[in-house]
Request: fold
Amino acid sequence: MDQNKTPIIDALRLYQKKGITSFDVPGHKRGRRVCDLQKLIGKRTFLMDVNAPVGLDSYSKPHGVIKESMELAAEAYHADNAFFLVNGSSSGVHIMIMTVCYDGDKILLPRNTHKSVTNALIMSGAVPVYIGPEINEEFGIACGVSEAATIRAIDENPDAKVLFLVYPTYYGACSNIKAVIDYAHSKGVIVLVDQAHGAHFSFSSALPKSAAELGADLVVTSTHKTGGSLTQSAMLLHNEGFVKYHSIKKRVLMFHTTSPSYILMASLESSRKLLATEGEEIFSELAWECKKAKKELSKIPGLVVLNPNSNSSATHKYDPTKIVIKVTGLGLDGFDVYDIMFEKYGIQMELAEPTLVLAVIAIGDSKETIHKLVDAFKDLSDTYYGKYEPLVVPQERIRIPPSIMSPRQAFYSEKKAVNIEDAIGEVAAEAVMIYPPGIPLCVPGERITSETIAEICYCKDNCSCMQKDSIEPDKILVVIPDEENDKTDNDNKMNNVINENINVEDD
Ligand SMILES: Cc1ncc(COP(=O)(O)O)c(C=O)c1O
Reply:
């Protein structure tokens, strides 16, 4: 296929010229009534914001430009089929798990998955069997799961039908998923891959290969994160074999809006063309610039840069475009540096953790933006290095506490809010995390340990991006044990039991 083709964009261009009078939705009628947003972003965006008019295509029964554009995407990502998504990789994760897992099915997965996975476990009723990721002790982060640990998990759980992998991790670690996929398939296990942070993979020889090219059954990728499409747009990739096309398509349509945005789909198409036709050149240059920047950053006093060569056996390959900088040598934690970068240097980092900050280099970056980052860190070190003692913060953030019930059972159990400090030994009824990265510190159904509480308390006191369901900052939702539940009279229930509709924060 000709990867220079842009069928959706061409159709939109043509449609716009026709001057059709709209009696369909959306109701802004191609921007006929001027509003503040239109003044900000221009009428053209409104002209392109159409639903499924004559001359364009229908998402639920694609036969024209959407079909062709998704076929071009499938080819570019080395998959048999591609589905455009307009609700991020989060919806792709939900779709993947809901396609292959039924209530009570065992799914093997690393503990350091995104909150969308926890939500999919709740919706599907699947029972997680966690594989411990290897930990980089120096940075206090998870590296990925090793090939040996994954194969052991498959062997020890012959009744598990699904393996879920994260590739790459938020910090760029890529485990040897080719070997793992082949082994899983030899045992009849379906492989799902969360490649949210690897939309650029396979488009340059400087980058790891995409999981779809490596043979995974279903892969979700956040094209908006590194591939240059608009926020919310993502792709779900499918390889024929273990998962049938019609069953994945059915779930896609179940979870998808019936009015997907043409602007988001056009942005996926535009990004696919750029990646397929110029990705090699763009990412070879960016990978080279990142390498130089990491060398310079590691010479700056007080900073340590994650060096892929010093990583664990769980890191088979490393995404060169992720820059992970440990900052505690400056006497600051990652959350302090995240704020200083924004306030003093006008730089938005992707995320902070207790020890580090992460810079994501993506298709929109250049030599100049990368230099600006390095210069800011030089100045930061000049200002802070030696001023304070190096900081010691809680380490090793990923543990696997005992699972007492499935996430779904815990989520639908009767719950009460208890003080965080008093929750040790209770069973969590909610996921608590800092977002980003959105990796739960505790998952519903897990026994809450003293280490988990120490981490939650540290994050609560030191960062503003903590997410949990219970609104009260010092409380956490736990499952009411059966005996207590039986004893609780109706009046108490009114006071203690958290109603799903109150006291719960939407995030
Ligand atoms: C590993 C991982 N998976 C999935 C997602 C969800 O992606 P999206 O924001 O596209 O819904 C994220 C978001 O940060 C993520 O980090």
Observations:
- The first helix runs from residue 7 to 17.
- The CA atoms of residues 206 and 284 lie 6 Å apart.
